[in-house]
Design goal:
By secondary structure, the protein is mainly alpha-helical. The model has no long low-confidence stretch (mean pLDDT 76).
């Protein structure tokens, strides 16, 4: 059986503590009291709590920033660069060559285009 569950465990612990205090010399008690009053417990225990609180606050801000909706970045409304005559034809994309070549449309309208397209 666990001794902590006995009904008189508390009373026996208090008696043992009182007996131990009775055996401590007055000089030792005076030194213990002086040590307890010279370094306040609030100063010794304050910095871990402050550190933990600051860390928790920083962590909460970081998580909160992850949940914020991101706004789309504005795209500049710059027009596409114009194709000049100085640009060689090899550097142009294929659809641009077809769009800017009027001979293609003339060839499509000619009598040679339909038979060639049927092959």
């Amino acid at each position: 059986m666990n001794p902590a569950h006995e009904p008189d465990f508390d009373a026996r612990a208090r008696q043992a503590h009182a007996a131990a205090l009775a055996q401590v010399s007055p000089q030792t008690l005076a030194r213990l009291r002086a040590a307890r009053h010279s370094s306040p417990a609030s100063q010794r225990r304050a910095w871990p709590w402050l550190t933990a609180t600051a860390f928790s606050a920083v962590l909460a801000v970081m998580v909160g920033l992850q949940w914020l909706p991101s706004s789309p970045s504005p795209t500049p409304a710059s027009p596409e660069p114009a194709i000049t005559a100085a640009t060689p034809d090899a550097a142009l994309p294929a659809n641009t060559l077809l769009d800017e070549n009027p001979d293609l449309y003339l060839w499509l309208a000619s009598s040679e285009a339909p038979p060639l397209a049927m092959e």
